[in-house]
User: Which sequence fits this backbone?
């Protein structure tokens, strides 16, 4: 063997040894280096739900702000976000790319119920933290079967429980009529209400009517509900049918205490088309400050948010609640990373996400706190009721905690 | 055997060998992408039989894809039937649906047929939500990925890719034989001039609806495979844009070309991702630029352009042999289609 060959071999051996040593030395922490941590995300930047894409852009902008201010514990957040066009196959492809190729430490705020359903099993098998997903379905809070997945916003059942505790307190002899969409979303709300009412439920609920999204109107259901003698109306409808229901109830002179699910609480797309007069007196549940509500315009949280938007996301709309949503959820992710300290292993990220205690965030309503635990993967379980006064939602009463006995 | 025929046989064997060796040097996520490419290639083959070979337009093949996916998903989820059996069933049922739809569609030509099929693409996602008991409504159906059988030591991704690739090869051989057969010649004759074809005794109505059926069957098989590969079906997976994507695939790949479907499938799988890498702000604008430049540079699709290149090389070699005499360019030209 020539000298040169020997040298080469020795060099190769040394390199191999060094490589092995470094693998053994550094505990393999996926997605983390001394200077950065990789966080993965998918959002619908195109397709039918692209209006929500602004959430991903706000989050990216917020992490840029965090990085400009020095990052978290000395590490910069490398936020990798891909378009899934709100289609499950693309979501699977992109999430697998994030996990297998980009090697992110955690997934965060992947958006949409069908898209998250498609990746639910995969991320739990791969043991990747799947944090604060952007969907209101209840199934994300299932730590026993899906220990790596965690929801964010109050889910539909939580909201149903909030209405139930208000009804029990203020209308103990209510006759409740329910209109709900005949799918998981509608049934989740009804289940929340029934669970919240408990044993009294069977007596209080006098009629349940459902509709399909393919139905042209819900007029006949509203007439049936009126004729049932219900004096409390629990309206679980998406915006199109919410408009019809509010209008029809008003037109036929039915004046129950009317609870409208948060899904359809938008002033622009529901209350205005239904008629502001017809909408007066509606009650809904809120957990965030409505950024179009003038009562917050002098609030520091609001002005801070506006300053952030102007500096980091100037093309984002200041009347789009989604931008406040993205800002708030990015803050909770930052909080989790802060709590992790120097241990950014996937196990510890998950452990810290399960260890949020009474965290208050500026754009949440006063008194609403983030709480999680190893068996509680629903961070937000409090809401406050608001009544529509013909112009805007006016908060009233205390903050309700859906699960406080 | 002609030179072109021999070349394409060599090419086919090379591609098949490459395809089967892929799982042994690629990671799970990459393999998943190539599984998608195979699935798209089958769907494009289906649409190409209809549009490229038979001259009928469809903007609704996403609907057949969805039907195939749901047939497979429902069979696996409701009746615990092995995934392998669901694929031929999905193909067969889609073939029947396509044939039945093809009969009334005979009265519609060109753009009118495109609109009629477009209505299918619009309607199917909503209809799926209506039969919630079977389809799981907007929540869809979650499936389990099949494991490799016979104790093979390969991952689910590797197994799934191999199955998909093998089916793709079979479907392509069948299609290549179909278009070279009597039926295939009848299909092309109808495309080129249906009055002349009928004069020659071709039953235009029968062949047209038959092509529609076969085309839908191919797309149904692709849909079934996609349900198995993604392990989840939901109405949101099959929006209108999917049908448009298929059309883009066959036009970019090459109308009336077998290889074009592979190239088109690679295009619709990877180019949107590249576009996103280039610009986060306007990925679809970048995609549009890609589309326009491809169409400008290769009006007969990628396969058409490659074939043209090949033929011009052969022609120049032949004309050199014949001492500079110009080769019959008319024949060469007619082969380009």
Assistant:
């Amino acid at each position: 063997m020539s000298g040169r060959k020997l040298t080469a071999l020795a060099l190769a051996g040394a390199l191999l040894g060094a490589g092995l040593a470094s693998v053994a030395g550094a505990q393999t922490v996926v997605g983390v280096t001394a200077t950065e941590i990789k966080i993965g995300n998918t959002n619908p930047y195109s397709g039918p739900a692209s209006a929500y894409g602004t959430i991903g852009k706000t989050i990216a902008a917020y992490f840029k702000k965090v990085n400009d201010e020095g990052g978290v514990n000395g590490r910069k957040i490398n936020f990798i976000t891909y378009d899934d066009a709100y289609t499950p196959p693309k979501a699977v492809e992109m999430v697998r790319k994030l996990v297998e190729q980009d090697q992110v430490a955690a997934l965060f705020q992947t958006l949409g119920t069908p898209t998250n359903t498609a990746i639910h099993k995969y991320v739990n098998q791969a043991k990747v933290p799947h944090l604060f997903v952007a969907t209101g379905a209840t199934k994300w809070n299932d730590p026993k079967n899906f220990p790596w997945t965690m929801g964010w916003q109050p889910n539909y059942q939580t909201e149903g429980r909030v209405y139930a505790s208000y009804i029990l307190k203020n209308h103990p002899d209510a006759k409740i009529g329910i209109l709900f969409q005949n799918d998981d979303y509608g049934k989740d709300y009804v289940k929340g209400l029934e669970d919240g009412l408990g044993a009294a439920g069977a007596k209080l609920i006098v009629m349940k009517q459902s509709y399909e999204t393919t139905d042209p109107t819900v007029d006949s259901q509203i007439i049936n509900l009126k004729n049932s003698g219900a004096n409390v109306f629990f309206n679980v409808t998406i915006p199109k049918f919410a408009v019809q229901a509010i209008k029809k109830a008003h037109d036929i002179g039915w004046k129950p205490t009317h609870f409208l699910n948060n899904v359809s609480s938008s002033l622009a797309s529901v209350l205005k088309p239904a008629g502001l007069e017809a909408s007066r007196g509606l009650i809904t549940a809120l957990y965030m400050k409505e950024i179009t509500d003038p009562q917050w315009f002098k609030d520091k949280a609001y002005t801070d948010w506006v300053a952030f938007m102007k500096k980091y996301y100037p093309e984002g709309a200041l009347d789009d609640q989604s931008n406040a949503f993205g800002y708030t959820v990015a803050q909770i992710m930052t909080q989790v990373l802060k709590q992790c300290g120097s241990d950014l292993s996937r196990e510890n990220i998950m452990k810290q996400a399960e260890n949020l205690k009474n965290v208050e965030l500026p754009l949440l309503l006063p008194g609403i706190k983030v709480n999680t635990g190893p068996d509680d993967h629903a961070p937000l379980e409090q809401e406050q009721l608001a009544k529509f006064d013909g112009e805007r939602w006016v908060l009233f009463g205390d903050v309700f905690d859906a699960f406080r006995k | 055997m002609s030179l072109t025929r021999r070349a394409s046989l060599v090419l086919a064997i090379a591609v098949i060998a490459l395809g089967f060796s892929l799982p042994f040097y690629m990671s799970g996520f990459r393999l998943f992408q190539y599984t998608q490419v195979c699935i798209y290639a089958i769907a494009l083959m289906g649409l190409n039989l209809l549009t490229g070979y038979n001259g009928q337009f469809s903007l609704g093949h996403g609907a057949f894809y969805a039907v195939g996916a749901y047939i497979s998903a429902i069979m696996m989820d409701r009746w615990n039937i092995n995934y392998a059996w669901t694929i031929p069933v999905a193909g067969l049922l889609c073939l029947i649906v396509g044939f039945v739809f093809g009969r009334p569609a005979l009265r519609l030509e060109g753009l009118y047929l495109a609109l009629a099929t477009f209505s299918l693409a619009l309607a199917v996602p909503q209809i799926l939500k209506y039969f919630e008991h079977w389809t799981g409504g907007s929540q869809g159906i979650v499936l389990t990925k099949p494991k490799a059988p016979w104790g093979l030591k390969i991952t689910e991704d590797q197994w799934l890719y191999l199955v998909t690739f093998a089916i793709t090869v079979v479907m392509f051989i069948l299609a290549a034989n179909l278009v070279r057969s009597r039926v295939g010649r009848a299909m092309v004759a109808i495309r080129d001039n249906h009055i002349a074809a009928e004069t020659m005794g071709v039953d235009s109505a029968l062949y047209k609806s038959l092509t529609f059926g076969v085309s839908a069957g191919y797309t149904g098989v692709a849909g079934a495979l996609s349900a198995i590969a993604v392990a989840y079906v939901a109405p949101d997976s099959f929006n209108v844009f999917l049908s448009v994507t298929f059309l883009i695939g066959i036009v970019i790949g090459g109308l009336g070309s077998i290889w074009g479907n592979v190239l088109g499938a690679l295009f619709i799988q990877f180019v949107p991702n590249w576009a996103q890498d280039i610009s986060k702000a306007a990925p679809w604008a970048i995609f549009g630029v890609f589309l326009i430049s491809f169409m400008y540079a290769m009006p007969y699709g990628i396969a058409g352009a490659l074939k043209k290149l090949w033929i011009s090389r052969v022609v120049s070699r032949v004309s050199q042999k014949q001492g500079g005499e110009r080769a019959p360019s008319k024949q060469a030209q007619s082969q380009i289609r």
Q: What stands out?
A: Residues 36-153+298-374 of chain A form a domain with the Rossmann fold fold (CATH 3.40.50.2300). Chain A is about 45% helix and 15% strand.
